[in-house]
Structure formats: structure tokens, C-alpha cells
Amino acid sequence: MMALMQSLVALSIDAMLPALTEIGQDLGARAANDSQLIVSFLFLGLAFGQGVYGPLSDTTGRKPAVYLGFTLFLVGSLLSLLATDLNVMLGGRFLQGLGLAAPRCVIVAIVRDQYEGPAMARVMSFVMTIFIFVPAIAPTLGQGILLIAHWRAIFATLLGCGLLTLAWFALRLPETLSVERRIPFSLARIKAAVIEVCSHRVSLGYTISLGLISSAFLGYLSSAQQIFQKQYQLGTMFPLYFAILALCIGSASFVNGRLVMRFGMQNLSRWSKRFSTVISLLFFLYVLSTGGQPPLWTMMGYMMIILFCFGIMYGNLNAMAMEPLGHIAGIGAAVMGALSTLISVPCGILIGHSYNGTVIPVISGFMISGVLIVVVMHWVETVPSEPVSETD
């Protein structure tokens, strides 16, 4: 259930990728790259929303916070469905993201309520496996809808999926935060919790690393349709190539779930970051030598490797960032999610809007984020760990 709720985020992002150009033309986008904002504004809503639902879930319980989020998502889906210009569409997408922040944030707290350490990393990896399987089929779903209906039918499908998922959640999931563990809502408490999260070296460092990973990934997502459908002229075959790459992340998450109990979160993350950074540096030099137009098979090979490494790191970094925050799991997940998304959205928009008919901006994004992740994680791992709070 957690995986499928999380997958609604992926479905809302990826199902309309094949339709971005058509949506932009119908709604009066002034430039081709402006259509990318349909993806970016959902992430912007996610960033702002996560700062709300964590504290709310600590006060009212996990389920009421999710109910509020789904309500906003359904309103945003309806607004996007009926949009007649790009600004209205972007408003609807922002509301969708604002609503989807609830399952994205609160799910981490729900899992942390019941698991910790490698066990939590294992659960999160399996959640990510299904979460990534959805992007493998979402563009195909969107392309299939476009073959038989208008692009607005994609948003009608999202509206229906939201209603079904909300009903399943309401009927089947018990509340995981008991009444005695709930904390009264207080701005002072929120401020103290934010300070604690941001001053804890481990949580802050791994959260920044998550933001850097997401930056490169958002830049890739924003320009994937232009790269594959236009630059490589794949047309309706775009969903197939996108699915192959999405499955690389999903398979990595599955593999990580199998290996993390044996090798540990830090070791798997450390080797994945090193390997992906070296590969990115080498491929960037190769891309420059081709004028930003590498053969499709080399581009696919590189992306398969880099996304597999990112899939290994993502679940582990989430778990390691949350490890010291068990006593403030709700707001801890909120701050972690909001901070990482606020890092990724502007950087991802910059990468996507830099698309110039070559893959240089996207590969640059992966290379630069890889180097920065190495620096940040080295800073985290070489400084002695801080003592764990007695309340943890």
C-alpha cells in the first residue's frame, strides 16, 4: 500500500511526458522549454507541502494529514483537467504537488514508526522498487491514452487513481502513531525541530545529497521527452526507452533491499557514488567530443549505469538521514523532504531549461551533482558522529 501511494507521485509526473509538447501548444506556451514547467511545478508543490504535513501528522496522526493531501491533489487534478491556459495548468500542477507531498512525506514517517536502521532501508528499497516500476509504464499509459483520446484524459485518469487510492488507504491502513506519542502543534516546537534537523551533521549531509541526486534526475525528467522524441527522433517509441531506464532504478532498489542487511547502507552508498561519479566524468568528456550528440546506444548505456547507482543510493540515503530522527519522525521527514526538494527544483529547472538540442546540459547535471555528492558525503563520513539524543 505504501509503495502504491508513493507511486501516485511517479504516475503524476511521468504519465504526461509524451504529451508535454501537445499540452504546451494547446495552452499557448511561448517557448518549447516552457512545457517542462508542467513537470517542475509539481515538484515545487512537493517542496512546499512537505513542510506542512510532517508537523501536522505528528499532531493529528498520520491518516488525517494524508486525507488533507489527497483532497488537494484531487482539486489540482480537476483544475489541470479543465485548464485553458498554461498558467491555470501550472496552478493545478502546483496543487497536485502540494497534495502529493502528504503521501511522499508521511509514508516515510509511517515506515519510521515501525522500523529503523537497515530494516527501514530494506522496506524503503522495496517501496522504491514499485515506485520506480510505475515510471516504467506511466509514459506508455500516457502515450496509449493519446492514441485514443485527448491529453485531458490523462488528468482524468489521475483523478480516478487518486480516488481509488484514497479509498483503499482509508479502509485498510490502521493509524501508526498512537495518541500518547502525538505532540501538540506548536510553532516553537517546529522551529526547534527544524534547528535540530539542520544542525545534525548526518541528517543534513545526507539530505543535501538526496537533493543533489534529485536535481540531476529532475533535469533529466524535464528534458527526456525532448531528448528521445526530438533529438533521437524516437517518436512513439519514447516510452519504451524511458521504461528501460526506469527499470534500472527499480532493479537497483530491489538489489539494495537484498544486499543492505549484509553490506550496510554506508558501504553500498559509498561505492555507488564513487563509481557513478567516475563514469559521469568520463562520459561528459566523451559527449563533448561528439558535440553533444552521442550515439543512442552510448547514451542508453550511460543512463542505465548512472540510474542504477542512483537507485542504490536513494533508499540508503533516506534511511541514513532519518536514522537520528526517530523521536521527531514526522517533522524530520518533512524537513528532510522539503530541503532536498527545494535544492532539486531550482537546479532541475535550470538543467532542463538549458536544453539546447544536445545532451550536454543533462550529462553536466549528473556530473556536477556526482562531484558535489562525493564532497558532501566525505564531509559527513570523516567527522566524528554526534552523540545520539537521550530522547531518540
From TrEMBL:
Membrane-topology descriptor: Multi-pass membrane protein
Transmembrane segments: 37-53, 65-82, 123-142, 148-171, 192-218, 238-259, 271-289, 295-317, 329-352, 358-380
Any one GO BP annotation for this protein: xenobiotic detoxification by transmembrane export across the plasma membrane
Any Gene Ontology CC annotation: plasma membrane
Signal peptide location: none
Keyword field contains Cell membrane: yes
Boundaries of every Major facilitator superfamily (MFS) profile domain copy: 1-382
Subcellular location, record wording: Cell membrane
Keyword Transmembrane helix tagged: yes
CDD domains with a match to the protein in the record: MFS_MdfA_MDR_like
Gene Ontology MF terms in the entry: xenobiotic transmembrane transporter activity
InterPro entries: Efflux_drug-R_Bcr/CmlA (IPR004812), MFS (IPR011701), MFS_dom (IPR020846), MFS_trans_sf (IPR036259)
Keyword annotations of the record: Cell membrane, Membrane, Transmembrane, Transmembrane helix, Transport
PROSITE patterns: MFS (PS50850)
Family (UniProt): Belongs to the major facilitator superfamily. Bcr/CmlA family.
NCBIfam families tied to this protein: efflux_Bcr_CflA
Protein name (database record): Bicyclomycin resistance protein
Protein's gene: bcr
